Amino acid sequence: MICRSFLPFVLLLLLTMTIVAQSYPKLYSHQWLNNWQSLHLLDEMGGQFPLHCLKERMKFKLPAEMVHPHQFQQENATEAIHDLLQHIFNVFSRNHSQTGWDEATVEKFLHGVHKEMMRLEVFLEEEMGWENSTLRRDISLHIKSYFKRMMDYLKGRNYSSCAWEVIRMKTKRCFLVIYRLTRKLKK
C-alpha cells in the first residue's frame, strides 16, 4: 500500500529530473554567449592593462573551489555562476568615474550581467526549486570574501583608475572561472 502511494511521487521526480536535464544545454548556450560578450565588453572598456598601473597590482586569490571546479555538479555550478555574477554586478555598480571608461560600455556590461543573473534565477526557481540551495555554504562564503577583498582594495585606493584596472583584470579571470563552470552545464 505504501509503495503504491510513492509511485506518483517517484514519477514526478523522474519527470522533473528529465525536464531539468533537457534545460541545461539551453542554459549552457545562453551562458556561454553571455560569458563571451562580457569578456569582450571588459576588453572594450579599458583595452590593455596600463603599464603605469603595474605597481598597483595585488594578488586576490580566487577560492580554490573556483580555480578547480571539478567537484561541482550542474546545479552547484549554476548557483556558483549566479553568485559570481551577482558580486561582479555589485562591484561594477560602484564609483568608476575616475576610470575614463565609456559609460555606455559599462552600462551595456552591467545590463548583460544583470540579464544573465535574472535568467539564472528563473532557471533555479522554476527548474530546481531554488529555495533548497545546493551550493555549499563555505563555497558561497569564500566567493563573498573574495569580492569583499576586491571592494576593500578599491576603497583603500580611493577608486583610482589603476585600482579599477586591477579589478577589471580580476573580473576577466572570474569570467574564465564562470566559463569553466559553464562547461559543467553542457554535460
From TrEMBL:
Subcellular location: Secreted
The keyword Protein biosynthesis belongs to this UniProt entry's keyword annotation: no
MF-aspect GO terms: cytokine activity; type I interferon receptor binding
Swiss-Prot/TrEMBL keywords: Antiviral defense, Cytokine, Disulfide bond, Glycoprotein, Secreted, Signal
Pfam families, A to Z: Interferon
GO annotation (BP), single: humoral immune response
Top-level taxonomic group: Eukaryota
A GO cellular component entry from the record: extracellular space
InterPro entries with a match to the protein in the record: 4_helix_cytokine-like_core, Interferon_alpha/beta/delta
Secretion signal span: 1-21
Subunit structure: Monomer.
Family the UniProt entry places it in: Belongs to the alpha/beta interferon family.
Name under which the protein is recorded: Type I interferon 5
Organism: Ornithorhynchus anatinus
Gene: ifn5
